[in-house]
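Practice record 12: protein with 2-phosphoglycolic acid.
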Amino acid sequence: MRQQIAAANWKMNLSFQQAEALLDELLKKPETLKADQKVVIAVPFPYLQLAKAKLSGRKNTYVAAQNCFTKKSGAYTGEVSAEMIASMEVEYVVLGHSERREYFGESNAVLAEKTNIALEFGLTPIFCCGEPLAIREAGSQNDYVAQQLKESLFHLSADQLTKIVIAYEPIWAIGTGKTATADQAQEMHAHLRNTLASQYGQEVANSISILYGGSVKGANAADIFSRPDVDGGLVGGASLVAAEFGQIIDGLK
Ligand code: PGA
């Protein structure tokens, strides 16, 4: 049975003290996760250790970094390696978020390298894909998003692919308050699963969790997650408010 995941993406928000307070708030929520449900919290690098310490012992709850570099180690001032993240026993890393693609020029080819190194060090990539508004308006979103998967992931073996989580995040829905409808999410998720099946077979494709991201809130999470190919969400703004994120967790199917 594939995993249902509520993932928080804090992005570049919160002071250390605020991060601590938010984690403490989240810990007040009763532990209700079922065996196939997970919570993943992607925090800024300086808070990884704090998040690990606070959440250790919490059932089915994991920590993620929001990025890693393509190289193992060396003279790359300011960068953080997959090896460093893994050495802190952090389990996940978000790769290819649209903000990384847009503001830091991360191409599909660079993301193939990041995926490789993350897997090499045992991290689970949460690989983000999604189309900008102009592509959606032109009706070519299916090809655009399939291309992102092909160029960044299709060199992987089936065994490696099963270690990846995919997040579909239409750029026009991120931080805009304009959520894709549950139907739009389901349609794209089914397309992504078919794209994976065309390369790796249906069984592998069925085992991959595909999360939806873009203006998920407490009020709309359960509806979006109820669709058969939507396996939870990657949540930005609403994950900074404990009560909202709690409601999103409760929306997992
Ligand atoms: P949002 O961000 O929930 O604030 O729209 C989602 C994301 O960028 O992961």
